[in-house]
Design brief:
The protein has 155 residues and is α+β, with helices and mostly antiparallel strands. It has helices spanning 11-18, 41-47, 59-72, 79-93, 136-154, and strands at 2-6, 53-57, 96-98, 105-107.
């Protein structure tokens, strides 16, 4: 199981590295539901021994996942919910991951990679999608970006 946090709002990753809840000053993000200043005691206690790693995603990745959900899958989830999909997409396509708490980038270890035998079907991945609590203006802004990209591609 992996955790996902927006870059700059990484209290969970820093807390796991420190072995105790650590407060952060959350950065601005479209995933406002993932902006706690400190991971709670109960979530920390539950996750500390269960997470394989924490994936940090940026707003562009969250916005792309939001558009994929809405425009292709016809699922409206708030950006905080789309962050989980952004993290899964990153894990599926990227061989690097921010190490817990260090802020540096390192290669995934074999134990952290998504397990798949050579030539085997990729593993089934579950993503928890939460909330539809998203402002109509944000939906319009995020989907307008997709429309502009389509127009440029066609031109």
């Amino acid at each position: 199981m992996y955790g996902v946090e927006p870059r700059g709002c990484d209290s969970l990753a820093r807390s796991l590295a420190a072995g105790r809840p650590v407060a952060v000053t959350p950065a601005p993000t479209i995933a406002d539901g993932l902006r706690p200043s400190c991971v709670g005691e109960l979530p920390f206690a539950v996750l500390r021994d269960r997470l394989r790693a924490v994936v940090r995603v940026d707003d562009d990745e969250i916005a792309a996942a939001f558009r994929l959900l809405l425009l292709e899958l016809k699922v409206l989830a708030e950006p905080s919910g789309a962050a989980g999909l952004a993290g899964a997409l990153r894990l599926a396509t990227d061989a690097t991951l921010r190490s817990l708490g260090s802020g540096g980038t390192r290669r995934l270890t074999a134990a952290e990679r998504l397990p798949a035998a050579a030539g085997a079907r990729p593993p089934t991945i579950g993503v928890v999608l939460t909330g539809g609590n998203v402002e109509p203006e944000l939906v319009a802004r995020l989907t307008a970006t997709a429309r502009i990209e389509e127009e440029v591609a066609v031109a």
